[in-house]
């Protein structure tokens, strides 16, 4: 039986030759993404700005503008209406009313009643009402957890490898997360609690790739102590290329299935993970690895020892001991 | 590395069988599971509200209400304590008791008694928190004015005590609605989360929980003149309260401050119909002590009107036509059957010690949840099939082993979730599908490494051995980062996201086990029996 080989044997691509160009592109993408996020803003869901989001199902396709006018007429603030999942379903979002938390709840009830009156055949599928205070807290913990995840993972890598590896990983993570923010600012897909969960997952999985490459670099550093750093990185990336492509593919297969056949509610969530996976794959090569050259990782950071997982690999490290 | 002693093989096999058996009930319909013999596991995976449908409501203590309550009760305390008790302590005359900026302040008329007043009030304050702080600060200004400031620690203390009681009352009220399996838990310092599966219109529930249900009977102040009333000035000892249904058309009414009797002394409340006009009313019954007080006051005030107040608003103000001796009374006030019934439930369950407001509501209709399950299951099946085929096409025999490990992995995740009664949520389904894609990562790492070693000219057994050993290190490191991310997700997330984090974590642990240990057992078994001279990978 002939087996499928997506990546030919013994590739010898000079990935790191393009590190300066790649890094320039990477940094520009980060800046562009952040600028887009700040200028255009994210389409924040009720989880983070408060207000209410009501999913309504009609028996036949409806005119979005018509629904918006009817929702506005209820008089609880300007409604955003968008199609959701199918032409028969819409998502109506209204802001937190001025009167504070009590009126938020009253407004939710008004909207429900108002819509059902205007469209007697409509069915309210789901309602999310979040007060201003709660949404503020969710936003705060969400941001905090993202920052903590990036930091905690980088510190772990510093422990397991060297500080230069940790720095490289942190930068790659920052790149991945920034680009995901940029993607949400660009597409104006709703940014909600689920997306933060997706971002955390991206942080975890995009690091998978980075670690596999780093692990190979560490191994080669011990093996070829005189090799030029750039050549060594290229060798490591080439050696792990087949695996990188394979793993990303299996995950992409799974996520595409979810994107196409999965429930509409988690479309944004899946899209975010898919993007993060894609970005995370190349960022391990171009956003994380170059730092090892620039930050002067030396081969004597890892004195060769005989086998064993996690045994004392770092004996002579220059000031990076923790 | 490839030696698998028999006890290890048996151990792993038993573990797998156990795990897979646990997964079975979750994949079968209700009827089949209830018919299981008793030795079969019947624990199933819980469905989160976003999948099962239902209502999630978060209630928060109204801090303004707490502050007002504390001022109210301290004002009362000041008056009683400084009035003194006959024969025990003397009366300290005070004046100008007022509230401003959330503080209470008053004058002690006799400057020599300031210290005595301060001492008596100090005895009324309580310690709050661990820092030795009191619940009120007492300050003397200009040698005669006493200012009492409620401390934050005192407010927190109050909320803490109040929320514990509030949780029980909320519990009673929700259960009185007859919903199935509600969960009511405290969250943080000042919140209560109520989850009711299957409830798709939580309006009645919210109305019920939004009512503090503080019932008070007070005499109507008859000496108030309408001009003063309109200006908001009440005679001494009285207060002006809203009266939405006032027959005179005036939206307010003046009542005596003194409470005749309150809802605390109720033993029962039922929705009924008035015998004269057939309107819905709530009929209440007082306990023995309450009945006595009620009988005495009604005797003394025949012919005068009294007001029935609910949460500070007057429901109605009927005349006392005759003394009410049996301890029974009827509350009227433009009720519908539903609102009368809700009030009866609220009164029976007791008044909430603090006003609660709804700060978050998430409701999903059960049909929508079922739709999510169906679509999620379809996506999961397609994803699994695609990954299975892809692995075989790429790695041949080794792909089959990886696939076997993947299928076992999926069953183990379901089994462990059922064992711990974990909750599957919509993002959890996504996490599940993602795990399917990610779980083979370990096998990809191992197989690619074996390919490399074969290429370097190692003999099959050596290649497999080195492949597993070298790949394990990266697999371990890579999965730790995922666990870190999942742990933070669990920490920050609300219900559905916690569910996602749980699935992710279980998936990480089981996938490392199946992809590394279980697949190695398969490969080792094959190598031993077939002794291949060449590896096709």
TrEMBL record, chain A:
Localization per Swiss-Prot or TrEMBL: Cell membrane
Domain Protein export membrane protein SecD/SecF C-terminal span(s) in chain numbering: 118-296
Highest taxon above the source species: Bacteria
Pfam families reported in the protein's UniProt record: Sec_GG, SecD_SecF_C
Gene Ontology CC annotations of this record: plasma membrane
Bilayer-crossing regions: 21-39, 138-159, 166-187, 193-214, 235-260, 266-289
Topology class, membrane: Multi-pass membrane protein
GO BP of this protein: intracellular protein transmembrane transport; protein targeting; protein transport by the Sec complex
Keyword annotations: Cell membrane, Membrane, Protein transport, Translocation, Transmembrane, Transmembrane helix, Transport
GO molecular function list: protein-transporting ATPase activity
InterPro entries: SecD/SecF_arch_bac, SecD/SecF_bac, SecD/SecF_CS, SecD_SecF_C, SecD_SecF_C_bact, SecF_bac
Protein family membership: Belongs to the SecD/SecF family. SecF subfamily.
Quaternary structure note: Forms a complex with SecD. Part of the essential Sec protein translocation apparatus which comprises SecA, SecYEG and auxiliary proteins SecDF-YajC and YidC.
HAMAP family assigned to the protein according to its UniProt record, in alphabetical order: SecF_B (MF_01464_B)
Function: Part of the Sec protein translocase complex. Interacts with the SecYEG preprotein conducting channel. SecDF uses the proton motive force (PMF) to complete protein translocation after the ATP-dependent function of SecA.
The protein's name in its UniProt record: Protein-export membrane protein SecF
Organism from which the protein derives: Flavisphingopyxis soli
Gene expressing this chain: secF
UniProtKB/TrEMBL annotation, chain B:
Keywords, alphabetical: Cell inner membrane, Cell membrane, Membrane, Protein transport, Translocation, Transmembrane, Transmembrane helix, Transport
Listed GO biological process terms: intracellular protein transmembrane transport; protein targeting; protein transport by the Sec complex
TM annotation in the entry: 376-393, 400-420, 426-446, 474-493, 499-523
Cross-referenced InterPro entries: SecD, SecD/SecF_arch_bac, SecD_1st, SecD_SecF_C, SecD_SecF_C_bact, SecDF_P1_head
Location (main, coarse): membrane
Keyword Cell inner membrane included in the entry's annotation: yes
Residues annotated as domain Protein translocase subunit SecDF P1: 163-221
Gene3D superfamilies, A to Z: 3.30.1360.200, 3.30.70.3400, Multidrug efflux transporter AcrB transmembrane domain
GO cellular component: a single term: plasma membrane
UniProt domain SecDF P1 head subdomain: residue ranges: 248-354
Alphabetized Pfam families for the sequence: SecD_1st, SecD_SecF_C, SecDF_P1_head
Location of this chain's protein in the cell: Cell membrane
Membrane topology summary: Multi-pass membrane protein
Highest taxon, organism lineage: Bacteria
GO molecular function, one term: protein-transporting ATPase activity
Complexes and interactors: Forms a complex with SecF. Part of the essential Sec protein translocation apparatus which comprises SecA, SecYEG and auxiliary proteins SecDF-YajC and YidC.
PANTHER family in UniProt: PROTEIN TRANSLOCASE SUBUNIT SECD (PTHR30081:SF1), PROTEIN-EXPORT MEMBRANE PROTEIN SEC (PTHR30081)
Family designation: Belongs to the SecD/SecF family. SecD subfamily.
Name of the molecule in the record: Protein translocase subunit SecD
